[in-house]
Design the sequence.
C-alpha cells in the first residue's frame, strides 16, 4: 500500500468508528467529516424513499437508514440511485416487521426512481398497430419502454404508497387486499397506475420476448375470466410499451 | 462565459426563472452527478438550460486525490455528458471521496506528500485524457490540520498545473474558511496562489459550528456570501483582473432574485475593474 492508501484506509476506518487512535480523528473537527458523509447518505435515502419516510416518520427512518448505510454504503456517486438494497434491508429489519406493507411500499418508491431515470424511448405507435391485420398483430413482438416497472403485492401497496406520497393518512375505507401497480413514464412524468394480475401477466410475457398472441394465450389460460378486450387496449395506451 | 460576467449554481426549483433570465452574460453551473441518469426529466432539464445559457460542469466525485484511479464507468458517462452539453468549463476538487469501491459523499483531506502528488497527477492526467478536456481543480476547505505535508497547498496546485496543464478554480470562500479554521492568513494564501492558471472563481456562504473549537467555519453553502469573502474577492480581482465568477448556494436556497442580486454584485465588481483598467 502507498502512503496515500494507508492514510485513506485509516481515515475510512476512523469515519466508521466512534473512537479511533488515527491522529486526525483525535481532533474534534473530525466530527464534521463523520457527520457530512453520513448526512449525505441519509439525505439521499430520505429523498429516494419518501413514501416510507411518511409512513414511519423521519426519526425512525433515519435511524433505520443509518444501519443500512453502514452495511451497504453507496457505490455510485449518483446518489439519486442509492438505496437499491434498502427494501431488502427493511424486509430483514426486525423493528419493521410490525408494518407488513412497508417493504412493498419501499419497493414501489424504488421502482418510481428507476422509472424516472431510465433511458428515453419513443412511445408505441398505436396508429401503426391499428393498421395491422389480426394475423399480423398476433405475431407482433412489442418492446417495453425502458421506464416501465410493475409490482405484484400481497398488500394494498398502491393505495398506501399513493396516500403516503401525498403525505396524507390512508383512508378508513382501505380494502386490505392484494394490489398490483404499473409504473410508466409519459412525457417525462412518472405515473403509478392500478394494475391487475392479467395486465402484469401480459407485461411479464412481453418482457420475456413473447409475441402479442403468445402473451394473450398465456393470460387467458392463467386468468380465464380476464376481459382482455378491455385490458389490452388500456395497457397499450398506458405508455408501458415503446416503439420497436 | 465572459470573464466579465458572473454565474449562478443552478437549482432545479429555479428552472423557470433560469430559462427566462436574460441578464447579459449570465451562465450556470451544475454538478454533473445530478444529471447522469440514462434519460428522463433531469437530463432533459439540463439540455433546456444548455440551449439557453452557457453551462459549466463542476464535479464532486472523481476522487482525484484517491489512492485508486477514477472510476472508469463514471468517466465514460461524464464524457458522454460533456460531448452532449459542451460545457464551457469542467472542474473538480483537490480531494478524495472513493475508497474500496464505495463512494463517500464528501470532499476529504489528505497529506500533500510526494506520493500523493504522483497519485493526483496520474488521476488528473487520466481524467483529462478520458474527458478530452482540461479540468480546473478547486482548492478545498479545511477543518483540521493534518500532519505530514511535504508541499504547501499553493505549491502543490502550481505543480499540478505544471505537470498536467490543468486549470485552477479558486474558491474564495474555501480560502476564508480554511484560513480561519487552520489559523493561517487568507491574504498570504492568495499571494502564493498560482493565479495565472485560474479559470473560474467561486463565491459562497458558510456557517459557524460553535460546538467545535470555539467556532469552526463550515463550507456549508447555505447562506449569502459573507462580507469578508467579498473583501477577499476584491483583492483577487485587484491581483488578477476579471475572471468568470460563480455564486454557489446549496442549502436554505432563497428565491432566484436573491441569488441574482449576489450575482449582480459580483458583476458590478467585475465591471468596475474593467472600467478602471
Sequence:
Amino acid at each position: 500500500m502507498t502512503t496515500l492508501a494507508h492514510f485513506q484506509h485509516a481515515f475510512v476506518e476512523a469515519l466508521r468508528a466512534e473512537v479511533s487512535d488515527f491522529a486526525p480523528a483525535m481532533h474534534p473537527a473530525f466530527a464534521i467529516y463523520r457527520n457530512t458523509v453520513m448526512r449525505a447518505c441519509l439525505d439521499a435515502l430520505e429523498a429516494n424513499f419518501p413514501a416510507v419516510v411518511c409512513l414511519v416518520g423521519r426519526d425512525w427512518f433515519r435511524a433505520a437508514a443509518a444501519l443500512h448505510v453502514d452495511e451497504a454504503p453507496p457505490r455510485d456517486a449518483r446518489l439519486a440511485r442509492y438505496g437499491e438494497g434498502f427494501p431488502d434491508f427493511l424486509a430483514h429489519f426486525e423493528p419493521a416487521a410490525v408494518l407488513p406493507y412497508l417493504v412493498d411500499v419501499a419497493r414501489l418508491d424504488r421502482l418510481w426512481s428507476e422509472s424516472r431515470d431510465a433511458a428515453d424511448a419513443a412511445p408505441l405507435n398505436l396508429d401503426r398497430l391499428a393498421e395491422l391485420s389480426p394475423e399480423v398483430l398476433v405475431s407482433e413482438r412489442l418492446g417495453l419502454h425502458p421506464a416501465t416497472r410493475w409490482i405484484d403485492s400481497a398488500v394494498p401497496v398502491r393505495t398506501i404508497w399513493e396516500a403516503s406520497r401525498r403525505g396524507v393518512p390512508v383512508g378508513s375505507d382501505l380494502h386490505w387486499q392484494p394490489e398490483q401497480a404499473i409504473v410508466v413514464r409519459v412525457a417525462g412524468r412518472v405515473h403509478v397506475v392500478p394494475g391487475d394480475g392479467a395486465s402484469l401477466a401480459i407485461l411479464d410475457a412481453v418482457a420475456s420476448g413473447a409475441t402479442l398472441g403468445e402473451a394473450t394465450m398465456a393470460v387467458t389460460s392463467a386468468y380465464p375470466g380476464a376481459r382482455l378486450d378491455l385490458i389490452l387496449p388500456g395497457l397499450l395506451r398506458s405508455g408501458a410499451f415503446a416503439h420497436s | 462565459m465572459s470573464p466579465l460576467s458572473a454565474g449562478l449554481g443552478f437549482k432545479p426549483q429555479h428552472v423557470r426563472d433560469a430559462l427566462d433570465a436574460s441578464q447579459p452574460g449570465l451562465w450556470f453551473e451544475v454538478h454533473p452527478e445530478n444529471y447522469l441518469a440514462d434519460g428522463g426529466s433531469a437530463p432533459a432539464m439540463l439540455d433546456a438550460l444548455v440551449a439557453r445559457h452557457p453551462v459549466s460542469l463542476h464535479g464532486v466525485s472523481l476522487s482525484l486525490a484517491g489512492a485508486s484511479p477514477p472510476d472508469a464507468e463514471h468517466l465514460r458517462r461524464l464524457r458522454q455528458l460533456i460531448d452532449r452539453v459542451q460545457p464551457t468549463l469542467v472542474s473538480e476538487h483537490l480531494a478524495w471521496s472513493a475508497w474500496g469501491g464505495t463512494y463517500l459523499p464528501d470532499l476529504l483531506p489528505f497529506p500533500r506528500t510526494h506520493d500523493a502528488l504522483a497519485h493526483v497527477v496520474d488521476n488528473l492526467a487520466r481524467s483529462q485524457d478520458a474527458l478530452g478536456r482540461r479540468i480546473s481543480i478547486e482548492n478545498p476547505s479545511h477543518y483540521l490540520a493534518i500532519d505530514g505535508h511535504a508541499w504547501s497547498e499553493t505549491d502543490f496546485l502550481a505543480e499540478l498545473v505544471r505537470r498536467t496543464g490543468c486549470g485552477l478554480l479558486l474558491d474564495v470562500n474555501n480560502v476564508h474558511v480554511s484560513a480561519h479554521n487552520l489559523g493561517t492568513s487568507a491574504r498570504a494564501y492568495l499571494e502564493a496562489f498560482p493565479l495565472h492558471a485560474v479559470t473560474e472563481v467561486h463565491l459562497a456562504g458558510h456557517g459557524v459550528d460553535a460546538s467545535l473549537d470555539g467556532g469552526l467555519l463550515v463550507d456549508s453553502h447555505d447562506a449569502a456570501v459573507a462580507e469578508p469573502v467579498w473583501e477577499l474577492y476584491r483583492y483577487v480581482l485587484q491581483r488578477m483582473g476579471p475572471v468568470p465568477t460563480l455564486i454557489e448556494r446549496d442549502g436554505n436556497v432563497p428565491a432566484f432574485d436573491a441569488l441574482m442580486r449576489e450575482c449582480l454584485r459580483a458583476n458590478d465588481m467585475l465591471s468596475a475593474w474593467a472600467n478602471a483598467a
